[in-house]
Design brief:
Number of domains: 1
Helix content: over 70%
GO molecular function: transmembrane transporter activity
CATH topology: Growth Hormone, Chain: A
Order of helices and strands: HHHHHHHHHHHHHHHHHH
Number of helices: 18
Keywords: Membrane, Transmembrane, Transmembrane helix
Radius of gyration: 21 Å
Strand content: under 5%
CATH superfamily: MFS general substrate transporter like domains
Number of strands: 0
Protein name: Transporter
Organism: Thermococcus chitonophagus
Shape: globular
Distance between the termini: 15 Å
Structural class: mainly alpha
Largest sheet: none
CATH class: Mainly Alpha
CATH architecture: Up-down Bundle
């Protein structure tokens, strides 16, 4: 039995907070910055989708190798240290590339380096929780970590919105254009770098990993991938997660385009920049309601059952998207995103511990790195699919961004029967 440690949970929560600040920087500023280079939803979506390609490959591979790493510094912490340092440097490089006016290809490569750095330690961050927390208490830990993760998003979106408001007051311009004309643009990138590097150092020097279990029969890379396909519960969960994350990424990647289309009738560069402040405010609001849903989601997971908590969160997240096809005002957008955030918070807190519990059930807890690496791949694949497919759908629909709402809702609802049919999802009391 692993003793429950709040120090470990809070250390992981701090790491999750810093990583969320980094991903929020990407979600909040990359799309409007790319709009300065191109209006095409397909081009911007494809560049942002490079994160999906990297996340599809790197976490499963490095998660696999971290399981067998023999180091006096642990199996996960060396990756966390290296990834956090590089990610902080990459965040500063994004600002530098944009401020120096590098061509689109150079800016896209800088974003890709940031994505690579972040994914160097994605699987290791995820694996540390089930490595250190006993099954039956993981819902509580997941609720706290999820709370901090989405608080990181809220912090960055709130900071960026505040800075844009100050920039607008100084320049008289609008949105991201005004921010780019002032020294304020560098602030989110500098703060993100500080959090990424600081949290990695904290975990590396303060958190101690438990002794690595002896692996008597290590899986080869091919056998590990094959075992996922052969075990229907893992396969169903990974497929379901791919669907609901793709739904999320449709909205997250193209939020500015959606807002511009609904409120102004088109997603022109001027309209996208005009809704940047509103988009950041809505992202902040969404994260507030995610926080509201996260802690109850963790409690429901431990107390009332895995299936119920996941399906409840999925349905609450999907219903506002069905309504999204008919939305026409700012007030309706705010209400829909607020409701969706509660559902998403429940869904995130309830889905995070599932892989760890399945590994406990099948007595494979030595392999948390590789299975959480695949877990992260099924969160990254949707970025690739949503960016490319979503951008193509929008372009084919005559830049009608509203079409992404019903498609996203359908994907979530398709995932729910897969969760219901998992045979080993519940754990014995």
């Amino acid at each position: 039995m692993k003793k429950f440690s709040w120090k470990v949970v809070l250390g992981l929560a701090l790491l999750g907070f810093s990583r969320s600040v980094g991903w929020a920087l990407n979600k909040g500023l990359s799309f409007p910055l790319l709009t300065s280079y191109s209006r095409s939803a397909f081009i911007k979506g494809t560049i942002l989708a490079s994160e999906g390609i990297i996340g599809l490959i790197i976490p499963p591979l490095l998660g696999y190798y971290s399981d067998t790493l023999k180091s006096r510094y642990g199996r996960r912490r060396p990756f966390i240290m290296a990834g956090g340092l590089l990610a902080g440097i990459a965040a500063l490089m994004i600002y530098t590339a944009y401020s120096f006016g590098v061509p689109l290809a150079g800016f896209a490569l800088t974003l890709a380096f940031f994505y690579l750095s972040m994914h160097l330690y994605t699987a290791q961050f995820r694996a540390l929780m089930p490595d250190t927390i006993e099954s039956g208490q993981r819902g509580k830990a997941s609720g706290v970590i999820t709370l901090f993760e989405w608080a990181g998003n809220l912090f960055l979106f709130g900071l960026a919105g505040y800075l844009i408001a100050k920039a607008v007051a100084v320049t008289g311009g609008e949105g991201i254009k005004a921010l780019a004309q002032t020294p304020y643009l560098k602030i989110p990138f500098i703060i993100t770098a500080i959090f990424l590097i600081g949290a990695a150092l904290f975990v590396y020097f303060i958190i101690r990993e438990p002794k690595a279990p002896e692996i008597e029969e290590n899986e080869g890379l091919f056998e590990y991938l094959k075992s996922i396909v052969e075990n229907r519960d893992f396969l169903k969960f990974y497929a379901a997660q791919t669907l609901w994350w793709m739904s999320f990424e449709f909205i997250a990647i193209f939020l500015y385009g959606i807002l511009a289309y609904i409120l102004y009738g088109s997603a022109s560069e001027a309209n996208v920049k005009a809704v940047t402040s509103l988009g950041l405010m809505l992202m902040a609001l969404f994260n507030v309601t995610v926080l509201i849903g996260a802690l109850p989601g963790g409690i429901i997971y431990d107390k009332l059952g895995r299936r119920l908590s996941i399906i409840l969160g999925g349905i609450i997240f999907a219903l506002p998207q069905l309504w999204g096809w008919f939305i026409s005002s700012r007030t309706e957008i705010i209400i829909a995103l607020a409701i969706a955030g509660i559902g998403w918070g429940i869904l995130m807190a309830a889905s995070y511990p599932v892989i760890g519990d399945l590994l406990t059930k099948f007595e494979r807890e030595a392999f948390t790195g590789r299975y959480y690496g695949f877990f992260e791949a099924t969160r990254s694949l949707p970025v690739l699919l949503a960016g490319v497919i979503g951008g193509a759908i929008v372009d084919l629909a005559g830049e009608n961004y509203r079409i992404l709402f019903p498609i996203g809702a359908l994907l979530v609802l398709m995932a729910m029967p897969m969760i219901w049919m998992m045979k080993n999802l519940e754990v014995e009391k």
